[in-house]
Amino acid sequence: MSALPLFRRALADSWRGLVGWMLGLAAVVGMYLPLYPSIGGNPEFIAIIESLPPELVTALSYDQITTGSGYTLGTVHGLIGFVLVTIAAVGWGASAIAGDEERGTLELTLAHGVSRHQLVLERLAAIVVKLVALTAWVTLLVAVLNGPSELDISTEGILAGGVALLGTGLVTATIGLLAGALTGRRMIAIGAGAGIAVLGYALNALGNQNADLEWLHAISPYHWAYGTNPLESGFDASVGLLYAVAIIASAVAVLAFRRRDVGV
Prior knowledge:
The protein is about 75% helix and about 0% strand. The longest helix is centred in the N-terminal third of the chain and has 36 residues, at about 70-105. It is built from twelve helices and no strands. The protein is mainly α. The chain has one domain (about 5-260). The two termini are about 30 Å apart.
């Protein structure tokens, strides 16, 4: 029997989708970052930003958009790139267990001498590899365009931004995986994964509104990732919370799936 059969099969079955996500992210990075020299210090652009409600500017992370790191956060890592990675992570996490269970193929897989914890861990490993590929790709593109786009982001900032983006994807994927392990229902798993991403973004936005709501930052995965703008300040310990949540969610998913009856 070949090593890691479920891991290998998961990657073989999804590589085309992975390439599609990478092309989408390349389009986003390639479209937005080269625009920075023409709009970063543009008086008209700055006037437009200043005309917006301060709460909206802060919620969208546009308060630092005139700097290269702030612009990259506001367009790629904290907005469109974040959305694309989140959508990919939600789909992969929700399908890992619940997708097969709803199709009626999960019991067949388990009947071939595959243990439940092996199934969860190998499919989780495939998700991790794909998310690492996506975020490494974004990191590489930012590094390549850093000079030509006059972003002036440090090497540490570029790497820290990639680590933060990966952390958000892992939280989303593992929460979806956990919901699928608990319920066996793909839509519930999708809702859980997407819900944690939307909730984290909303809590961060609300926490930015005034000092009385800043406590919401402490429970926002989005703020853990981008509260200090890793592209500007480099690595921050709060990003470790994302990885801690992902590890805990993965462990609970393994335990939950081992104890649950599998059915359609």
